[in-house]
Design brief:
The chain is α+β, with helices and mostly antiparallel strands. It folds into two domains: 3-177, Thiolase/Chalcone synthase (Peroxisomal Thiolase, Chain A, domain 1, 3-Layer(aba) Sandwich), CATH 3.40.47; 181-323, Thiolase/Chalcone synthase (Peroxisomal Thiolase, Chain A, domain 1, 3-Layer(aba) Sandwich). The protein has helices spanning 20-28, 36-43, 57-72, 96-103, 120-133, 157-160, 216-238, 255-265, 276-279, 286-296, and strands at 3-12, 17-19, 47-49, 81-85, 110-114, 139-146, 166-175, 180-187, 195-196, 200-202, 205-207, 213-214, 247-250, 305-312, 316-323. Helix 3 packs across helix 4 and helix 7 packs parallel to helix 8. The structure holds acetyl coenzyme *A. This is Beta-ketoacyl-[acyl-carrier-protein] synthase III. Belongs to the thiolase-like superfamily. FabH family.
Length: 324
């Protein structure tokens, strides 16, 4: 079986919805000023889902993964690979993938985390595709899951209004028919300074800055340039035209980045899946959550050609083309 195909998807968002007005009121108690108008105009975000203080990434990931397994009609005994993308793991170790494996009662196969921030899901999906095509696995769970609210500085209005928590997952299985038809990944570590959470635990103490920091305008420029070139490159590599794409599922960071990208690539707005208004930026979870949303509401159908794109800290970016 030379191909790997998406056979199921799932998504999970924590129950607490925080609207822009809720957030503005909460931030005002800290003396931090923001507004629904500013957030919508600059980002397109209207609300986000925020996990309770004791909810870990693995809990969200387990729910999304179980939903994807049910959708694909597989059971725990079928899964022989779990790749989980996150920048907010439960622990330094074991990996969050191993915790999810145990939660789901999976007792065989490999499980590991991938850390590529908001590009994590496309990195994980590309890795799972390579495992399956090389014959190392037959049925993979590929998960993007984050509790980004844990690494936000709620006194920094330039970042704390942008993110939400959640998890998305897909099942990727060996198949006679395509499948993942193309992928390409990039990193430029020299740009680590424009978006990072540079703290760590050392000698039992938090050293460095535990919170996410971002140069928003530099990220904006880097994201649109990197993603437009990556979309063109993955199509050229896979022998398809941009006009062949039925659906674009970009990383959901900011509606202005998404609109700019669609325009630059000549992809009509009706073909672009947007969830940033409802979910905000859920980092590694954003692409699988958006994919799952559009599969479940009937927009993305079997046979459609889907372009998924991630971009984020590192700096990292990449694209995956999938025939559903
Ligand atoms: N509420 C009200 N005012 C704000 C807020 C806020 N939440 N945040 C910033 N401002 C103010 C600033 O203080 C500044 O005021 P000043 O002119 O008096 O100093 C003014 O708004 C403009 O600030 P900028 O940072 O220049 O605003 P900008 O237009 O660049 O918008 C944004 C900021 C939305 C972050 C933008 O740069 C952007 O979209 N960047 C892309 C980055 C992104 O989406 N990152 C997500 C994570 S990375 C990823 O997923 C790839």
């Amino acid at each position: 079986m030379p191909f790997a195909k998406i056979t199921g998807s799932g998504g999970y968002l924590p129950p607490r919805v925080v609207t822009n007005n809720d957030l503005a009121a909460e931030l005002a108690t800290r003396g931090v000023e923001t507004s629904d108008e500013w957030i919508i105009e600059r980002t397109g975000i209207r609300q986000r889902y925020i996990a309770d203080a004791d909810t870990r990434t693995s809990a969200l990931a387990t729910r999304a993964a179980q939903m994807a397994m049910d959708d694909a009609g597989i059971s725990a005994g079928d899964v022989d690979l779990i790749i989980l993308a996150t920048s907010t793991p439960d622990f330094i170790f074991p990996s969050t993938a191993c915790i999810v494996q145990a939660n789901l009662g999976i007792r065989q196969g490999a499980a590991f985390d991938v850390q590529a921030v908001c590009s994590g899901f496309v990195y994980a999906l590309t890795t799972a595709d390579a495992f399956i095509k090389a014959g190392h696995a037959k049925t993979a769970l590929v998960i993007g899951a984050e509790v980004f609210s844990n690494i936000l500085d709620w006194n920094d209005r330039k970042t704390c209004v942008l993110f939400g928590d959640g998890a998305g997952a897909i099942v990727l299985q060996a198949s006679d028919a395509p499948g993942i038809v193309g992928a390409e990944l990039h990193a430029d570590g020299s740009q680590a300074g424009i978006l990072n959470a540079s703290g760590n635990v050392c000698g039992g103490k938090v050293v460095g800055d535990p919170f996410l920091r971002m140069d928003g305008q530099a990220v904006f420029k880097m994201a649109v340039n990197a993603l437009s070139k990556s979309a063109q490159d993955v199509c050229a590599k896979s022998g398809v035209q941009l006009s062949d794409i039925d659906w674009m599922v970009p990383h959901q960071a900011n509606i202005r980045i998404i609109n700019f990208l669609g325009k630059k690539l000549g992809i009509a707005p009706e073909k672009v899946v947007v969830t940033v208004d409802q979910h905000a930026n859920t980092s590694a979870a954003s692409v699988p959550l958006a994919l799952n949303t559009a599969r479940r509401d009937g927009r993305i159908k079997s046979g459609d050609l889907v372009l998924m794109q991630g971009v984020g800290g590192g700096f990292t970016w990449g694209s995956v083309l999938a025939r559903m």
